[in-house]
Design brief:
By secondary structure, the protein is of the alpha+beta class. It is built from five helices and seven strands. The structure holds magnesium ion.
């Protein structure tokens, strides 16, 4: 068994769609980034790459490369998982905590779990997503952006 950790954060901006865990969520703001800025997929990608000792998402999909502009991060996650599989590892379980003041993400957790489980070719029970606020503190509390922490176990 090996364990990897991933962290990601993105800033909110007007005029961007909010996509988290591969699910489009209605909100006044979206997240900025070179890809679709899906912080859940990015943190999870780093966690599984880390568990396999395969570097990180920025190394695998550099933001200097125009082919990843507005990329679907579920596709990036799926590609990274393929590399993990080719290296002889197999995702056992992933646990994620999303820290966002707004919007409330609980209504979308089931859909995000399903999307990620499908992308990673694992059962639904292998993907855990928890959403919480930052109790109004700091940059997350002011609604400037969101952060995601992911832990992945591979065998
Ligand atoms: Mg990111």
């Amino acid at each position: 068994m090996r364990v990897g950790i991933g962290y990601d954060s993105h800033r909110f901006a007007m005029g961007r769609p909010l996509i988290l865990g591969g699910v489009r969520i209605p909100h006044t703001h979206g997240l900025t980034g070179h890809s679709d800025a899906d912080a859940i997929c990015h943190a999870l990608t780093d966690a599984i790459l880390g568990a396999a000792g395969l570097g990180d998402i920025g190394h695998m999909f550099p933001d200097s490369d125009p082919q990843w502009k507005d990329a679907d991060s579920v596709q990036l996650l799926s590609r990274a998982n393929l590399a993990v599989t080719e290296a002889g590892h197999h995702l056992v379980h992933a646990d994620l905590t999303v820290i966002a003041e707004e919007p409330k993400l609980a209504p979308y957790v089931d859909a995000m779990q399903q999307r990620l489980a499908d992308a990673l070719v694992v059962g639904l029970s292998a993907i855990s997503i928890k959403a919480k606020s930052n109790e109004g503190m700091g940059w997350i509390g002011r609604g400037e952006g969101i952060a995601v922490i992911a832990v992945a176990t591979v065998s």
